Amino acid sequence: SVALCTNKIYDVFYDDYVSGKAFLHSHSYSGNALACAVANGVLDIFENDDILGRIAYKSARMGTRLSELSSTKGVLNIRQTGMICAVELDTTERIAPKVFEFALRRGVFLRPLGNIIYVMPPYVINDEEIDLIFDVIRDFVGSL
């Protein structure tokens, strides 16, 4: 990971340790040799198994299913970045608990926040699971 900031902010926190001004932050797992080896293994898998190519395909499939919802009554807006999708519902009702329960009864774990349904599946998702997610969202919106 990375943290970005302006020079002005950086200068506020940068100093010698003894000054008490330096910002020291880390985690118990930072630089752990085993974790680094695992991370390198994951990067090898990404390269050797064309994970990014698979993600591009899955993102496109999700985009196709998402776009089917764009003209659905009750959908205010849709948006997507890669494998992250959002469906904004046209309601002021406190709908998140209803979305969550509706989807969970159908075997889908969704993350609604307010009137927005977020979809952010793992990279190992398959076509049938993508279809199930968007079928459940479509069915929920149709039930409104």
From the structure above, extract its key features.
144 residues; extended; alpha+beta; Aspartate Aminotransferase, domain 1
Structure overview:
This protein has 144 residues and is an alpha+beta fold. The chain folds into 2 domains: 7-48, no CATH class; 51-143, Alpha-Beta Complex (Aspartate Aminotransferase, domain 1). 47% of the residues lie in helices and 14% in strands. It contains 5 helices and 4 strands. The chain has helices at 7-13, 33-48, 51-67, 96-105, 127-143, and strands at 75-81, 84-89, 111-113, 116-119. The protein has a 4-stranded antiparallel sheet. A hairpin with a 2-residue loop joins β1 (75-81) and β2 (84-89). α3 runs parallel beside α5. The longest helix has 17 residues, at 51-67. It is extended. The two termini are 41 Å apart. The model has no long low-confidence stretch (mean pLDDT 89).
Give a quick summary of the entry.
The protein is an alpha+beta fold. The chain has helices at 7-13, 33-48, 51-67, 96-105, 127-143, and strands at 75-81, 84-89, 111-113, 116-119.
Judged by helices, strands and strand pairing, the structural class is alpha+beta
Give the SSE string. Answer: HHHEEHEEH
**How many domains?**
2
Any idea of the CATH topology of the largest domain? Aspartate Aminotransferase, domain 1
Q: Which CATH architecture of the largest domain? A: Alpha-Beta Complex
Largest sheet: 4 strands, antiparallel
- Strand fraction equals 5-15%
Distance between termini? 41 Å
> Overall mean pLDDT score?
89
- CATH class of the largest domain equals Alpha Beta
Strand line-up of the largest beta sheet: 1-2-4-3
Task: Tell me the number of strands.
Answer: 4
Which percent range fits the helix content? 40-55%
CATH H-level name of the largest domain... which superfamily?
Answer: Aspartate Aminotransferase, domain 1
- Our count of helices gives 5
